[in-house]
Amino acid sequence: MNNITIRAMLATDWDAVAKIYEEGISTGMATFETKVPSYESWNSAHMKSCRFVAESDSNILGWVALSPVSNRCVYGGVAEISVYIASDSRGKGLGKLLLQHVITASEQEGIWTLQSGVFPTNFGSIKVHESAGFRMLGKRERIGKLHGKWVDNVLFERRSKVVGID
């Protein structure tokens, strides 16, 4: 992909970010969420650092953000990753660029483990996570319901090679 800039996500990016999130929701294989939350709700659920957008010619093409997995201090270096790509930008390597960027940034923030839950039917997401160094830990069967039906989730993890190794 040419002319791609990855930069920190701003509050003013929310309309574009929410539109991409809605596109992911509409696939039925990206999240258990069924509607885009308000910016305030989304903002409070995600870490203030490690939020990025990919843009080209002032158009946001994708985003990535981290959420803490727990409030317990022992898990302070563990975060869950969300990555979403606009429907017309999928399959072009943008997901991997965003993952690589957030991996580097997360390590600078002292995060030693990134995890991601992916629907088993989301082959593109599985492929991009594996290409960015995530390993599949296993499948959580019937972990949640989406539109009244139980859905499995594949758990991926990436351990830092520079943070949390001592």
Assess the beta-strand content as a share of residues. 25-35%
Strand order of the largest sheet: 1-2-3-4-5-7-6
Rounded to an integer, what's the Rg over CA atoms?
15 Å
3D shape:
globular
Structural class: alpha+beta
The main pleated sheet reads as: 7 strands, mixed
Low-confidence stretches: none
Count of helical regions: 4
- Please give the number of β-strands: 7
Taking the alpha carbons of the first and last residues, their distance comes to 37 Å
On the 0 to 100 scale, the average pLDDT is 95
Q: Fraction of residues in helices?
A: 25-40%
The string of secondary-structure elements, in order, is EHHEEEHEHEE
Could you walk me through the main structural features you see in this protein, from its secondary elements to its overall organization?
- This protein has 166 residues and is an alpha+beta fold.
- Helix content is 27%, strand content 34%.
- It is built from four helices and seven strands.
- The protein has helices at residues 14-27, 39-45, 94-108, 123-131, and strands at residues 5-8, 51-56, 59-68, 78-85, 113-118, 135-146, 149-159.
- A seven-stranded mixed sheet has the order 1-2-3-4-5-7-6.
- Strand 6 and strand 7 form a beta hairpin.
- The longest helix is centred in the middle third of the chain and has 15 residues, at 94-108.
- The protein is globular, with a radius of gyration of 15 Å.
- The N and C termini lie far apart (37 Å).
- The mean pLDDT is 95.
